[in-house]
Amino acid sequence: MFRILIFALIVLINFVLQATFFPHIAIMAVTPDTAMVLIVSYAILRGEIEGAIFGFCAGLVQDILGGVVIGFFALLGFLTGYLCGKPFRDFFKDNFFLPFLVVVVVAFVYQFVVYVATTMFVHADFWFYFRTIIFPKTIYTASFSVPIYVFVHFVNKRLEKSEGVKREI
Question: What percentage of the chain reaches a pLDDT higher than 90?
Answer without folding.
Answer: 69
